[in-house]
Amino acid sequence: MSISQHDNSYNTEAKTKWREFVYSLATPDNTSTLTNDQGIYQYKWMELVGDNANTFQQLLDTNKIQEHQLIGIDRREDNINNCKQLFPNAQFHNIEWNDFCMTYPNNDIGIIILDSFNAAYGKDFKTILNNTMTLALRQKEYIGECLVVINVDGSKTYRGYAHHKGMSIRDVLKTNIENVFKYSDSYSLRSIQINTNSMYEYKQYNNSANMLTCGILL
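^ thats the sequence. predicted structure below, dont judge the formating
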């Protein structure tokens, strides 16, 4: 099963502000192991990459991470080949997200960014979320923490969730995530409660869908 992702440069002002929100989720004030006292990321950063991994350049420009700590995933082989030339010290994998989560052999990823156009409901979302959290829990076991950032099409999620009964778009995402965790074999997932006030909502363009982000620090 594939994950939909952006094919553009991520250079809109809205996306830049979204990236700043993501950076704010892992700081010396709210994590104990993911950063040092100066806010430098201590472990690897994994995410879906769009064209030419433009987000990696934005990330490197923060001076919080080194190129060799970056892991990019994309099922488009031509893009992965381009990315390898642009960032030769980073890791790039031409593989489905789910497959990578289930086969990655190491325990060195501190931050996982699942940034897609997918809706947060149904069998596909459950599969993606379970596989992502399986990887994240394994990283936490060795590192002590792992941050997972889930960015979804909030408008599509709201339209597709037939039983929202007047709930807000944020409540729908909270419910859908917690419903997946409810049946997990891991107690640490079953006990997670999502805070709707800490979610981030934005539109990439004025006429585009509402995107909705939830950060989970394990």
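The chain has one domain: 13-217.
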